[in-house]
Amino acid sequence: MTKTFDIAVFQGDGIGPEIMEPTVDILTRLGSAATQYNLTFTNAPAGAAHYAKTGESLPDASMAAARAADAILLSAMGLPDVRYEDGTEISPQIDLRKALTLFAGVRPVTVKKGQKTPLNMPADREIDFVLIRESTEGLFHTQGRGEVTKDEARETLLITRDISEKLFRFAFDLAKTRKDTGRGPGKVTCVDKANVFRAFAFFREMFDAEAAKHPDLTADHAYVDATALWMVQKPWDFDVMVTENMFGDILSDLGAGLMGGLGVAPSADIGLEHAVFQPCHGSAPDIAGQGLANPFAMILSAAMMLDWMGIKHDNVEMRQDGERLREAVEGVIAQGDILTRDLGGSATTQVAAAAVQRALFGDE
């Protein structure tokens, strides 16, 4: 029996609409060919350009569409010259994280054999790990509300048992799923600074409590500074890493660097009921409208969406299509002859997206 799922689509700013269009085209084609699912799409206006026109960055109707949707697909958001009156960025994606309690920021890092990488990596090595960043609290807790006087400034880091226990449960579940599908050894690494901060000792204590419930998996710890070193020296040793919001924000960009740039870095922010899927990169208004944007991260984010929905709704075909889509993009990137400018090539947005379609559907 075919089930229809609705996707809330946030087109984004700058290059956002340009990379969203081919992504929705691919998803529409997959859904049309599927026998176990179909996809519909609801446009949800939001972002910096929308704020400049209307004074609203995330309208109530768009938030309602996000809440009602089965998943949320969000393109690059924000413009450097459009900000709130207090000078902070227009970031509806963060508003969605907080409103929908999307505590698990999932950042996969994958480098296949033959893929270009800044690392001097052994030819027989591949990188395949997932960084999970807590996305609703940590050092982002007082975002926009920090205390600033003439002589000092303060921000508050918050770590709660409620969110941390959910986060660690998610991390171990993901490690088990990866192990069961042959993508990882079933290891979870807690990345913290427990040797300095009591808050991170508390974080680690809750991690260890969850680890004890999973004797079939391996759990270990790493300080965040050492982790940054090891992500460069031996990134193939990691499987699933879980960390605080700010640490994850920094390390996820390092992970993107290992892959060659933000243009190939997908992401998801996942809660108990809702999830947002978006590329890690910005809106790049300097190249908007020129056909130069890299669509790979947006398409990979859509593949993550299919996989998450497939798991949540026990839809095998959806999970299979998510895997096929991910492998199609990774194959195009690793082959290396059709790459956009940011990856050292000359392909346009449409040419790059068409290459993914050919790899996925066997088009001539």
UniProtKB/TrEMBL annotation:
Keywords: Amino-acid biosynthesis, Branched-chain amino acid biosynthesis, Leucine biosynthesis, Magnesium, Manganese, Metal-binding, NAD, Oxidoreductase. Pathway: Amino-acid biosynthesis; L-leucine biosynthesis; L-leucine from 3-methyl-2-oxobutanoate: step 3/4. It catalyses: (2R,3S)-3-isopropylmalate + NAD(+) = 4-methyl-2-oxopentanoate + CO2 + NADH. SUPFAM superfamilies: Isocitrate/Isopropylmalate dehydrogenase-like. GO terms for molecular function: 3-isopropylmalate dehydrogenase activity; magnesium ion binding; NAD binding. Its EC number is 1.1.1.85. One of its GO terms (biological process) is L-leucine biosynthetic process. The keyword Acyltransferase does not apply. The keyword Ribonucleoprotein does not apply. Pfam families: Iso_dh. GO terms for cellular component: cytosol. InterPro entries: IsoCit/isopropylmalate_DH_CS, IsoPropMal-DH-like_dom, Isopropylmalate_DH. Residues 6-356 form the Isopropylmalate dehydrogenase-like domain. Coiled coil: none annotated. Its cofactor is Mg(2+); Mn(2+). Homodimer. Belongs to the isocitrate and isopropylmalate dehydrogenases family. LeuB type 1 subfamily. This is 3-isopropylmalate dehydrogenase. It comes from Pontivivens marinum.
